[in-house]
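Hello,

Our lab assistant flagged a job as stuck in the queue for most of the afternoon. It eventually completed. Since we weren't sure the result was trustworthy after the delay, we are filing this so someone can double-check. Below is the sequence as submitted and the structure that was eventually returned. Let us know if re-running is recommended.
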Amino acid sequence: MADGFRVNTDELEAVVKRLRQIQQNMAQTADKSSHGTALAESDFGANFSHATTLYQAHSRVQLWLKDTINGLNGLINEFGDKTHTANSAYKGQEAENEATMVKYQQELG
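-- returned structure --
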């Protein structure tokens, strides 16, 4: 394939592996932000005029983190699945090309 192209399938697999590690780290962050920071409205104080505002802001940040991490997980899963499909296709095509070349070499003697 002098004028063709090559795809480094090992690098594709390495990228997905690194993304999966990031995904695991994000899962820990998601757990900590959801369960490790659970607060009741009363935790922000009594007779404090901004307690409700702080509690609502805390809840919004928790929801934002959850949504953001879920979105990133979806992107990583989609990219990982597409990369796996592409990687398999390239490896399959490579194996098919090699088999064809062996066949032609055998026919040519």
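-- support follow-up --
The delay was a queue issue, not a problem with the job. The result is valid. The chain has one domain: 9-108. Residues 9-108 form one domain.
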